[in-house]
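# step 3/5: fold
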Amino acid sequence: MKKEKDKYKNWQLKLITIGSLFSVFLILLVPFFHNFKTETKSVESYVALGSAEEKYYDRLEEVSNEYRNEEKDFSREVITATFTILKLSIEDFDFGDMTKGRMREVADLMLDQVNHEDGTITFTPKTEDGVKDALPGYFKGIDSSLSDATCDRMAEDVYDYIESYEALINFGQGETDPCISTGNTQALVFLNMTEEQFIATIGPIAQADYSRTGVFASLTIAQAILESGWGKSELAQKANNLFGITCGSWDNCITLWGRGWRVFANVEEGVQNHSEIISNDSIYPGALSATSSKEQLNLIADIYAPPSDGNHNYRGLVTQLMNQYDLEKWDVPINTNSDLCYTGATEWTIRTVAPTANDPAFTVKSDNRGQCVWYVQARVYEVALELAEKGIIESTQADLIRSKIYSVYANAGDWIGASQNIMPTSTNINDLRAGAIIVWTKSGGYGHVAFVEEVTSDSVTITEGWATNTTSCPSNWNCINFNNKTMSIDEFYNSYGPHYTGNYNFSGYVFPLE
């Protein structure tokens, strides 16, 4: 009998804030180990995996055509989500185990049979609740050792998975979007992705990280493919850990194969942590001085995957992946003059990476570079320039916005009072809207400000900047810290908005674009 795996839901992991990242001192103490299973892998092994996936989708297409010919309408998404939950919950359950017969069983439980007076029979789709009621029996039929509670939980997970997956990709059609990074990507979505879809998902994440850290995106992508088996490894699925980073002093870890591994809140955090360690000169001397991804690989390969541990062809495998999938095309830094990958419902492009000297709006002032006030002033002007370029506002209006925003001279916490005669303001937290500067005060401190990028019916996205050690850096761009944060409406109103980091109290909004 197949054994039940540990119960978990990747998409329910809590976000870990930038403030919880360990210090450089701790990084010095934590070696960066690759997943020891890597040495047994080869690029050819992924061809077999891809073949198994292709056969799965061929079977699904055959079943779809069969039911379509019989005028039976069912959801392919539910079948694949059901398979995914089985794969996560039952040891060794894989693509080949999801036969056409098992697909038909799921299709049948999604349909209600209607008998008509004239003797004809039609089939109508069940509601989501109806399918959930039927799925536990299906799971029990596959593995009778599963508890009733587990089968009920798995039925709920099927629809949780669909919701999570649809946030990244048009699930039924298999269409990819070259800019589908959400900032909270869960490795769960990789299970049923093709190689192209995996690269299209992680590419923008690695590219944004490269822009911030200097760790080449193509190196990050290739290592993620090799270390995690296209995001499908157990460690990737359970911990969003695509690189085999061991626990060390990390707060949240998981034990697999007798060792501790870091658990990341999302793929983005794992990519960030991977780059932070490679960027540490005491572990990988000179890695950031590389002028190409392959040079960077040469500088880290023997340390990252020592030949003495049996990794005799690690460099060759990573290089082969870079070449085979043309990954070096991602080695282009992102700035405001290029196409950013995360665009929201607002009329401007949401910033996802730290500003650089290549971003004109951020060069207007330099005396307080890196401070939160410096960031929001430049960000407002940057948005105004983009709106003018798109013809949404006149260039003269963009100039007026610049004049107003740079006429305020005050500590962050004093911006409401200092702005009142210059721009619209509000002290009502319910007046939240995109384009606002949110202001927090702090007793005995300077306070803090951030820019509200987007507000939807479900979420709020803000960006903010601040300087290392709170001191500005007029002649240095390396001291800039940057954060793009998307949260639910409830999280904003219940915690983040009223009490930023718990020590800052909401003061109000400034509306420089109005």
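# step 4/5: annotate
Residues 1-43, 45-49, 167-182, 335-344 have pLDDT under 50 and may be disordered.
# step 5/5: archive (pending)
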